[in-house]
Amino acid sequence: MDRTVVLKQIPQATDGKLFTGHLKEFQHNPLQFLEKLAREQGPIVRFRLGPFQKVILLTDPELIKEVLVTEQKNFIKSSDVQSLKVILGDGLLTSEKEQHLQQRRLIQPAFKKTHIKSYAQDMIDTTEAYISKWDKALESDVSQDMMNITLGIITKTMFGLDFKEGHELIGESVEKAMKLAIKRMRSVIPLPLSIPTQNNRKYRQTVQALDEVLFKIIGNRRQEDKQKEDLLGILMSAKDEENGLGMTDKQLRDELMTIFLAGHETTANALSWTHYLLAQHPEVEARLHEEIHTVVGDDPVKPEHFQRLFYTQNIIRESLRLYPPAYVIGRQVDKTVEIGGYQFTKGEMVLMSQYVMHRLPEYFEHPEEFKPERFENNFIKTIPPYAYFPFGGGPRVCIGNHFAFMEMVLVLACIAQKYQLHLIPDHVEIKPQPLITLRPKPSLKMVITRRNN
Ligand code: HEM
Known about the structure:
This protein has helices spanning 23-28, 30-41, 61-70, 79-82, 85-88, 97-107, 113-116, 120-131, 142-159, 163-186, 198-223, 231-237, 249-280, 282-295, 305-308, 310-322, 354-357, 379-382, 401-418; strands at residues 44-49, 53-58, 75-77, 138-141, 329-333, 337-339, 342-344, 349-352, 419-423, 431-434, 438-441, 445-450. It is α+β, with helices and mostly antiparallel strands. The strands form four sheets. Strands 1-2-8-5-3 form a five-stranded mixed beta sheet. A three-stranded antiparallel beta sheet has the order 4-12-9. Strands 6-7 form a two-stranded antiparallel sheet.
């Protein structure tokens, strides 16, 4: 019997340049480029970035599921994520295969739904302390405010540090390191860090300074008798079920840095976009206020309110649909594999874009509209898995997804209970800027007024 399998041809994008392929359009506006490609070419298409890098864009939920879940062992993270190793070491985001599995097993308990609840009060307290200074009507950079709040929350829940300590000790250096990392990613040929260019020197110094702080925090903790209940405490006491070993200081440093980086800018951007959308949709804002009034009233927001704030939760889901902070997931084919009748060849890159998927009219009616109600009546169960995936999926699904979701709902509830955020008159158009995460550009300047309940 002839067992030859006839493979389907992956359609090729047209109009690529001979040498650079579609690099220029991709670099100029990746969101627009990917959306256009998907619209014109359908669920699977191949294009080139530069002379050699072949890329496959997937916009079929079933194929995305194969790459992220069923056939995930044939893929590794794409090279831009790998380049973050200089800062993140071998933390959860950048490690691969057995090492990733082992680390994930150790860290997972700290992010279980039941455990996450214990962080809720810290989330509320940090937000309330921050917004209390908004007492008079003022114009503020809300993107920066959201960054400060989520930075405060992550330092408190991770290290037990207060906002000022966390901001000064870690926050500023992390921001600096990230800016330099982006610069490196964007350079056409990133020179090895051993070459002492001005940027490379700055980068190394910043990472070294961060290392010193993190190792000092870890060292001090090792001296303490009592185990603390923050994330660092949990990670330090975690033992692998199979070999009984805990984490070394280097592993702890890498994981702390990873969670720190992965866990505050994403959430901050989602909250900024949410306020941007609310300011343009007074009918949604009115329902939000109504729900806060019914569920919370004039009392302080409490952790147990989270479960009952259904509409507020749907506002966050809808905001993550329109402006997913992680707007694209990239994988590199590690072993040639056949998926859905197509061949994915070793070395090729696969892109799966939440931004593109979340705006496909076949899954989302009037996709451009901001309608939190669409998530009512178990809407998610009516569309295929991976048509909506703001937190990724499979074994590498965001470990902080429940943490982030609860955080966004509680921060929004605390703010909406007391304040209303308006766009400044004649504001310029805010556009999504796809850096490592999807940021509002220019940053979101808003007028904050106290609500008269
Ligand atoms: C709105 C907020 C967030 C969004 C949209 C988001 C999104 C994502 C996505 C899409 C991935 C998968 C990337 C891939 O498969 O290549 C991911 C991974 C990850 N996220 Fe998040 N994230 C958010 C918040 C957080 C928070 C709050 C934390 C920690 C406290 C966190 C920690 C991580 C880590 C450690 C990974 C790597 C997991 C692994 O590879 O095993 N994230 N995130």
